[in-house]
């Protein structure tokens, strides 16, 4: 009941005192910064100037200043542009592996601040790179930090608010990343020199670093630091213009595994446990395909017909309708599984149709494919967290995220297939979407199902335990509907418990 008490405190403080809007806004601005870093290679490394001499490119002056023209990355050297993009995603993979466990050990805030500071430093190294080798190395290091703070930011958006708002904050995080892509396209239109563009887009990180964030109260409490958790909760309420009195958490030590399931839970269980093994294999492939199609379409925006700046902005803005779409369907009878599979198949269908129409008219269908895969990507985040028990959820998400980064590493090379055939990239995206959609149907539905905490609860024979957990979830949601007079009562109950 002590953990339940902490959850109730966070419900009361976050819901009734502004939902920590100030701190979430800082994280959302950080998402815009990370989106700019992710899309940097699209504008500063566009190779269209070396492969064509279209009038639109001449008018934009896009071939006058880029890493392609400065270091002559043409013909046999043109692969280095895609290599720099892939190195960024290699860094993302390593960042997820290194910073995830590190944030569980030393805290969210130290890892966030350290990673953001180093990413800003390496971002400036990118802007002032004297050679391609330094540029490529800096992109690897920027990706390393980007992957680390991106994971920590997502966790903080969940741990700053009550559980009923996790889906909303997670969706808003993805939406601000999409807005960041659109803003980067507009920024690139007004700032053409590639070094100036890298310099300005990196400066947003300085603002994020100066805006401080508190430590996660959930993490502090899980480490037995109840006094610091209380201080953070009071600080958050004060920043939102309210003062919470009598806020006192029950004193406990560091959480310990109290049963055999927790003791044997580990990353190896993802392959050893028969139920988790199937789920992990399927989810890893789904995450890989989502990332491949998502980043493949996005990074190919610069090589599409028309203005590359408009294309980049459109590929960001087209994601915005995807989030209310997926939020609508996953809470309907279709559920998570069928909605995810449907959006993946629709993305594959849109890419398939682009093969049979003229290249200069395929942009709309490519945008539709980006819209569908964005919805699927958002659903798979929620779906994956629900498929894994609490004791192994972080390990499961980490493995899926690693698979996702493999797709991101390969994505920059997919648009390069246009040199062989203009339709070849869309064939790859089509097959990926259809195969992931059909394979995802092997997973169980989680809509209206109680959450699972231990490995033993994966067994159908323990439905009574799950029903008890479901009753708590319903009770916790009902506490969000209390009146202002009930707030103090809730806190007093926690103080007594």
From TrEMBL:
Q: Where is the Major facilitator superfamily (MFS) profile domain?
A: 38-448
Keyword Lyase set for record: no
Sorted alphabetically, which Gene3D superfamilies does this protein's record hold? Answer: MFS general substrate transporter like domains
Gene for this protein? slc22a15
Subcellular localization is given as: Membrane
Point out the signal peptide segment. Answer: none
Q: How does it sit in the membrane?
A: Multi-pass membrane protein
Lineage runs:
Eukaryota, Metazoa, Chordata, Craniata, Vertebrata
Gene Ontology CC, one term: membrane
Key words, A-Z: Membrane, Transmembrane, Transmembrane helix
Asked if the record carries the keyword Transmembrane helix, the reply is yes
The residue ranges crossing the membrane are 20-44, 81-99, 111-128, 140-157, 169-191, 278-297, 309-329, 341-358, 364-383, 395-417, 423-443
Q: What is this protein called?
A: Major facilitator superfamily (MFS) profile domain-containing protein
A single Pfam family it belongs to is Sugar_tr
Where does it mainly reside? membrane
GO MF annotations, alphabetized: transmembrane transporter activity
